[in-house]
Write a structure and sequence with these properties.
The complex is a heterodimer of chains A (229) and B (364). Helices cover 18% and strands 21% of the residues of chain A. Chain A is an alpha+beta fold and 229 residues long. Helix content of chain B is 2%, strand content 35%. Classes of the chains: A alpha+beta (229), B mainly beta (364). The interface between A and B is large, with 48 and 46 residues.
Chain lengths: 229, 364
């Protein structure tokens, strides 16, 4: 047997042993850095505004939010406890108060225990809702027209960081940041518009068609009734 | 005092015995014991802030690229050369005075008065730190091994022996300080196997009880049982400035270097010697221009229990500002955060930031 093969075999055996032995779940840590994060008017977002971490599902992209929910398509809200210094404890939501506490500046580091909801290889992103306070998350819901911004990096890192994918257990990674020239013209390569909350919740096409169809039907009924009268 | 704290000194600390005439001074090396705790059902990242007792010393009379010759010695040829099964102790040479004081190299072989050292590219005739002087002192110490740290027999081994090589059980994970990369898998997993001794996963025949650890090289001990276990290691306190080489990234990859404090005493991040404002280029941690786009970082583990744990806190030096922690607005981490003895840390060197000597205790 050649030495290279033996070495590879040994490494595989070690790896298998390491993977199989522990029954208690591993942890991962990742840091997320984004600035400037803006509201719909291009102003730095308030530190109390709602942020969410979103699992992007098998398609690996953000799907539009539908009214009454926080995600759309196969996306899921990462439902993990986030540490918050401002006195409330809600999974699924957080704000910038626990970061550097500066409006528009998102720099946070999270440690999670891997589980079925947050697993290695899962693509994730961050959404922000400038008109909803994180503290009111449990009492709020989205409606048509609710504004939000979103960011992920699933290809071509600009700054040498990692793609936004949950790493394997025991890893600490820094996700490739979003840095706009408005934050630091010397290094920012993302356009200023990247940080803008420029999306809004819209009804699904099917729902929209039903609504429009319903309106047309109502209109026609009203017209025919008027004619008969 | 708990696992990361020196709980006592066995002999007098820096005890000086001054001769009656005052003509000469001799020293009893500072020795002590250090208590470490292995958490139950968890991985514990540990390090040993004491050194093994010196086996020999000598005054240097000559050097070549990789050798050091000392005066009036008559060592047995090969006495400090590791030979598996014959001479199972790995030794290193530690410069105890002169400009290289605190720098260590593994001994590859020796003649009656000359040591051949693993210099990893350093050249004693043109050393980057300075010139080795006549009469500089070099000390020879055994390296820690799995056996000397955790026990050599079934009755004194600290972790639970495995019933057989294939059974799950407690083990030691040897961290990888040789290859370049981030979040590296351990290079070996070694367990104490019933009736066999220390064995690596995948190799039930080779005795690994002599697996050596560099001074300050961290290790991870994995314990499956629920109860924690503490143990005490006897050793000598390193005094004066000590150097630890922090492996850097290369031109294509960043590197995680596993490091620790070499003294049994906590030190603040700001005074640990990781960043020198007057010598940014020579600093171990290269400063960051932006808190969002960080250069080198110090990573620290948290206190939670579990297996395959990620480090949880990251520190960086913000250019012209000072030490900062990722995700924190605190401006006092340089004086608040303590590097503790007995713990393991990671220095993440970014791509293109090459290795550097971390000089610890230069104020001692």
């Amino acid at each position: 047997m050649n030495i290279k093969f033996c070495y590879c075999l040994h490494q595989i055996v070690v790896l298998l042993a390491l993977l199989s032995a522990p029954c208690r779940a591993a942890t991962v840590t990742f840091s997320i850095d984004m600035a400037n994060v803006l509201n719909e008017q291009g102003q730095n977002i308030a530190t109390t505004a709602l942020f969410q971490m979103v699992g992007l599902g098998t398609d690996g992209i953000f799907n539009p939010i539908t009214p009454g929910s926080w995600v759309g398509g196969d996306d899921v809200v990462v439902n993990e406890p986030f540490s918050n210094a401002d006195g409330w404890t809600t999974a699924s939501a957080f704000d910038l108060t626990d970061g550097v506490g500066t409006p528009g500046e998102f720099t946070r580091q999270f440690t999670f225990t891997l589980n079925a909801n947050l697993f290695s290889g899962e693509k994730i992103g961050v959404r922000w809702f400038p008109t909803i306070m994180a503290a009111n998350f449990g009492l709020s819901s989205t409606v048509a027209g609710t504004l939000y911004g979103q960011f992920t990096r699933q290809s071509s890192p600009l700054y040498g960081g990692s793609l936004w994918v949950v790493p394997t257990g025991s890893s600490l990674v820094s996700f490739d940041p979003m840095i706009t020239p408005s934050y630091d013209a010397g290094i920012g390569q993302d356009s200023n518009a990247t940080g803008l909350a420029s999306s809004q919740v819209v009804p699904e096409p099917g729902s929209a068609a039903l609504i429009v169809g319903g309106l047309i039907c109502s209109g026609l009924c009203y017209r025919s009734r008027s004619k008969r009268a | 005092m708990s696992r990361t704290t020196l709980i006592g000194l066995l002999s007098a600390f820096n005890l000086s015995l001054v001769a009656a005439q005052g003509a000469s001074t001799s020293y009893t090396p500072a020795a002590g014991y250090f208590s470490l705790t292995i958490k139950g059902q968890s991985d514990s990242q540990l390090s040993m802030p004491l050194a093994e007792k010196a086996a020999a010393f000598g005054k240097i009379t000559a050097v070549s690229q990789e050798t050091v010759t000392v005066r009036a010695k008559n060592w047995s040829v090969g006495a400090f050369r590791y030979v598996s099964g014959t001479q199972d102790t790995t030794y290193y040479a530690e410069f105890a005075s002169g400009v290289l004081k605190g720098i260590r190299y593994r001994i590859l072989d020796n003649s009656d008065d000359t040591l051949l050292l693993e210099t990893q590219g350093d050249d004693f005739t043109a050393h980057p730190v300075g010139t080795v002087a006549y009469d500089d002192v070099v000390r020879i110490r055994p390296m820690w091994t799995i056996g000397t740290l955790l026990g050599t027999t079934e009755t004194d081994v600290v972790i639970d022996p495995k019933a057989d090589p294939l059974a799950p059980g407690d083990s030691v994970l040897v961290l990888d300080n040789q290859r370049v990369g981030q979040n590296k898998a351990p290079v070996a997993e070694i367990a104490y196997v019933h009736n066999l001794g220390w064995r690596a996963t995948g190799d039930a025949t080779t005795d690994q009880g002599h697996w050596p650890f560099e001074t300050g090289q961290p290790l991870v001990v994995r314990r499956l049982s629920a109860d924690s276990v503490s143990f005490v290691v006897l050793g000598h306190v390193l005094t004066g400035a000590q150097s630890m080489f922090v492996f850097g990234g290369n031109s294509t990859s960043a590197n995680d270097a596993y490091v620790s404090i070499l003294y049994p005493e906590s030190i603040t991040l700001g005074s640990a010697g990781l960043y020198t404002p007057t010598d940014p280029a020579g600093s171990v941690i290269k400063s960051s221009r932006s808190k969002l786009l960080r250069n080198d970082e110090l990573l620290a583990y948290g206190s939670r229990a579990g297996f395959n744990l990620a480090s949880e806190r990251s520190f960086f030096y913000l250019e012209n500002v000072g030490w900062r922690e990722v995700g924190s607005a605190k401006t006092t981490v340089g004086s608040d955060f303590l590097l503790e003895p007995g713990k393991a840390y990671i220095i993440r060197k970014k791509t293109g930031n090459f290795g550097a000597d971390w000089l610890q205790g230069s104020g001692n």
